[in-house]
């Protein structure tokens, strides 16, 4: 996600901000960047396998991130204006 943020900013001056927060139940990480937002028609597809807007992309980066987060019983989401990826992972996972 950080690499994608840096690539989205490109040659322009911009920032990538990473925030970490925790409470007794979970840990939250936000990655926000100042580059151009994700186009509205693209946004619903970014976590789909093999979906990419890059010339040389594989479409496996964000789907891999989602898979890793979900394997830890977490959630990942994205919003625009500014573009912000949010990841929340529980501190403890009940074994059932």
Round the mean pLDDT to the nearest integer and report it: 88
Total of domains: 1
Order of helices and strands: HEEHEE
Please compute the radius of gyration using only Cα atoms. 14 Å
CATH topology: Heat Shock Protein 90
Major sheet: order of its strands? 1-2-4-3
Labels describing this entry:
96 residues, four-stranded antiparallel β-sheet, alpha+beta, 4 strands, Heat Shock Protein 90
How would you summarize this macromolecular structure in one to three sentences?
This protein is α+β, with helices and mostly antiparallel strands.
Secondary structure elements and pairings:
Layout: H1 2-9, E1 16-22, E2 26-33, H2 61-71, E3 75-79, E4 83-90
Antiparallel strand pairs: 1-2, 2-4, 3-4
Describe the structure in your own words.
With 96 residues, the chain is α+β, with helices and mostly antiparallel strands. The chain has one domain: Histidine kinase-like ATPase, C-terminal domain (Heat Shock Protein 90, 2-Layer Sandwich), CATH 3.30.565. Helices cover 20% and strands 29% of the residues. It contains 2 helices and 4 strands; from the N terminus they run αββαββ. The chain has helices spanning 2-9, 61-71; strands spanning 16-22, 26-33, 75-79, 83-90. The chain has a 4-stranded antiparallel beta sheet. A hairpin with a 3-residue loop joins β1 and β2 (26-33). It is globular. The relative contact order is 0.22.
